[in-house]
Design a protein that fits this description.
single chain, 0% strand, binds protoporphyrin IX containing FE, mainly alpha, 134 residues
């Protein structure tokens, strides 16, 4: 077991929160019509945070020997991550109307919360399991 596993896990969780917080903020800026939402500096900050988040995730996975496909909660988390990225791109860049932007934004936030629940529960049923409903 990697000696610094608890620290890497804390870094992963910390970056998950910062990444989600930054997306939430960028979405609000985009909804308010502020170009800062997609400013190059903000985009590169977001890429940097997400790359570090995934690097920490990779370290956790290889230490635990828990991989997507072998662990269903990780499989679902990675699939939802792809969905989240697509929804996020729609919300921040592609949406043509503010109404559509709001829809994509809320769908992306819901997907983020689903991933968070699945990770906390270590189970595909996520929050349902966490709250003892399944
Ligand atoms: C490819 C993407 C990701 C992979 C492969 C991955 C993998 C992992 C692994 C292996 C752990 C360690 C679990 C443990 O020590 O018990 C973990 C923890 C965690 N991950 Fe991720 N992760 C990814 C992305 C995300 C995302 C996008 C979120 C949230 C939206 C997230 C939220 C969490 C949380 C909250 C924990 C801590 C779970 C606990 O309390 O035990 N992860 N992740």
């Amino acid at each position: 077991m990697l000696e610094i596993y608890p620290q890497v896990k804390s870094i992963h969780i910390g970056l998950v929160l910062v990444s989600g917080g930054l997306f939430a903020l960028r979405g609000l800026l985009a909804l308010a019509g502020q170009p800062l939402a997609n400013h190059a500096g903000v985009r590169y900050l977001s890429y940097g945070i997400d790359t570090a988040l995934l690097a920490a995730a990779f370290l956790l996975m290889t230490t635990l020997h828990a991989y997507p496909i072998t662990h269903d909660w990780l499989t679902l988390k990675v699939l939802l991550l792809v969905v989240y990225v697509v929804l996020g791109v729609q919300a921040l860049r592609r949406a043509r109307t503010q109404r559509a932007r709001l829809g994509w934004y809320l769908a992306a936030l819901a997907t983020y919360l689903l991933m968070f629940g699945i990770a906390r529960a270590h189970h595909p049923l996520g929050w349902l399991r966490w709250w003892g409903w399944a």
